[in-house]
Amino acid sequence: MTRFRAYTPAEYTFPLPEGHRFPLYKYAGVALQLQGQLPILPAPALEWELAEAVHDRGYLDRWRAGEVSRDEVRVFGLPWSPEVVERARRASGATVVALRDALRSGWGVNLSGGTHHAFFDRAEGFSLLNDVVIAVTLALREGWVSRVAIVDLDVHQGNGTASLLAREARAYTLSVHGERNYPFRKERSSLDIALGDGVSDLQYLHVLDTQVFPALDAFRPDLLVYLAGVDVLGGDRFGRFALTLEGADERSRRVYRWCKAAGVPAVTTMAGGYNRDFALTVNAHARTVEVGLEEFS
């Protein structure tokens, strides 16, 4: 049996209107595909004190109590409910324990997370809590690591992450995203690589080799957090790229091989994926983990 394990909040669902665009189906689907390949554990609840180290306490209190405006809910993109708040808490807790796993075994896995649009005091784009920043802030505060690279390969810029870590010199925020895609007002990451529509496998992998990995070599992190969004695939409802499943597999393989060669533990979070082909969305997210099992085992 592998020494690795993964965490999922799949059992923590929340009410959605019929036909809503959020792909709630994918979390249970990914856990099912990976069953038997590694232990899959329920996502633990995040301690609210850890969230308060990153987010405004009044903001958190209002969302927990449901005291939010219609406009705030619209920008968040999901209807408010106690369940949606608890689910965000569980997804963030999973990133914290996955980070601890990475430091123990070399790789940690959250079958959710990557909610990179959450800011200090506002929710955006299905992101209520910025799980990666919460976990990274804890790790830096406790001295578990000294330099962290966040490699955000979701098709959308990690604007909340960039904003929250703008003054943290020990964190390197790197985002490869669609130039013309959401969010339409970008923040400034440590390195932003904005690409045009229709990016192919070869073009994307060339960017990794010529820009992403040299930047990581220069920063020399002792932990890497990988936001493995599969909304880079052709056919995604909210993406404008044209990667194939094989290209996305190779993307993950190169990230993991960089980590192995550099001796850097890695944390994988799922981030976005909204393909018109539901089965492809599930398979692509699961393949991110299966490739990791191939590379790290």
TrEMBL record:
The lineage of its organism: Bacteria, Thermotogati, Deinococcota, Deinococci, Deinococcales. It holds the Pfam family Hist_deacetyl. Keywords: Hydrolase. Residues 41-277 form the Histone deacetylase domain. This is Deacetylase, histone deacetylase/acetoin utilization protein. It comes from the Bacteria. InterPro entries: HDAC_classIV (IPR044150), HDACs (IPR000286), His_deacetylse_dom (IPR023801), His_deacetylse_dom_sf (IPR037138), Ureohydrolase_dom_sf (IPR023696). PANTHER family: HISTONE DEACETYLASE 12, HISTONE DEACETYLASE HDAC1-RELATED. Gene3D superfamilies: Histone deacetylase domain. GO terms for molecular function: histone deacetylase activity; hydrolase activity.
